[in-house]
Amino acid sequence: MSSIKKAIETCDAALDFLSQSSQAEDIPPAELAVIRQDFLSLLLLIYGSTTKISLAMKPKAFTYGAALSPLKDMSNHISALAHCTDMLLPKIHGATLVQEFNNICRDIIKSVKSLLVIFDVSETRVLESGDDYLVKTGEIHHLIDKARSSSRDGLSVDNLSAVRKKWQRDSGPLDDGLKELSDMIEYDADDGEDGEDDEWDELGLGSVKCLDEQELERAKQVYAIIRLSTLLHKRILQDFLSPSPSSALPNSDLDKLAPCSSALLSASDDLISSFYPPQDLSAIAAELNNFQESVDRLKSSLDAVVDGRTLQAQFDALNVIDKAPTSTLTKWYKTCFAQIQKTSQNLSQCLSANSET
């Protein structure tokens, strides 16, 4: 069996190993800082091996013998990377962080395998794959550079950073959705009737339609809801996911909050999209229900964070950035959730009334 095929099999074995989650929970956990540093060091070694393999096996300069050593090194590095990732324990290091490590590890191993498949030719045959190997080599380099970056996109240093990254990633799109809804409301109907061709017909999308009076009123109602939920998202990011170590929540609580951000973003986007004219009241009602369910799940996760303690006591344990009195913070969250629910119910009743007329 050629060294390339052995390296490919190593990649397959590493991916299978990662899917098994083989480490027992009773094994004393290694220090996260040590695991992370080893992981990043292995990525750097894979980066170098990738470069050497690509140079040795490039078309018209094919020297298989020169690739034997880096191919062997690559197999060792891939196996070590998988074992390093497997040292992380969700209950100890945090499920969100463990998933981030796994995703990076899998993406890199899959990309390395794809590169090796391109080079999976006989030792005497000249590679005729064009620039495919360069594209794949660049992809591996990009993944590794991104993971090793000290920016927000780099490998998280702990579970708090991993969860915070998810919430920060969704913050911008939530703002964009709110602006999209605002633009929809403020769109001047006269702009669509000034006699100028808006050129949408040429794209097969028809002319831009404006909201009628009832549609506009409904859009204003949902704007109030989306504005509150977007503000709620920002406030949770600030109050519960502050980078300050003194404000860090337990990993189990952080992991409960982690999926709530993307769920809120998805529900918010779907709800906003349903308000484009002509509005379908049944579709709006369905999306409004889904949105409220995502808010309810967020509230439940936030309640689970305090875990039997009063919200007052939880805020006392947090180093809140704005230093507002804890009683004020407690009241703010309760009021915000209640206001979202009340406004959603009002809109739902309005939809029901309009459907009956």
TrEMBL record:
Keywords: Cell cycle, Cytoplasm, Nucleus. Transmembrane segments: none annotated. Residues 196-298 form the Cyclin-D1-binding protein 1-like C-terminal domain. Residues 41-186 form the Cyclin-D1-binding protein 1-like N-terminal domain. Its main location: cytoplasm. PANTHER family: CYCLIN D1-BINDING PROTEIN 1 (PTHR15492), CYCLIN-D1-BINDING PROTEIN 1 (PTHR15492:SF1). This is Cyclin-D1-binding protein 1. It comes from Guyanagaster necrorhizus.
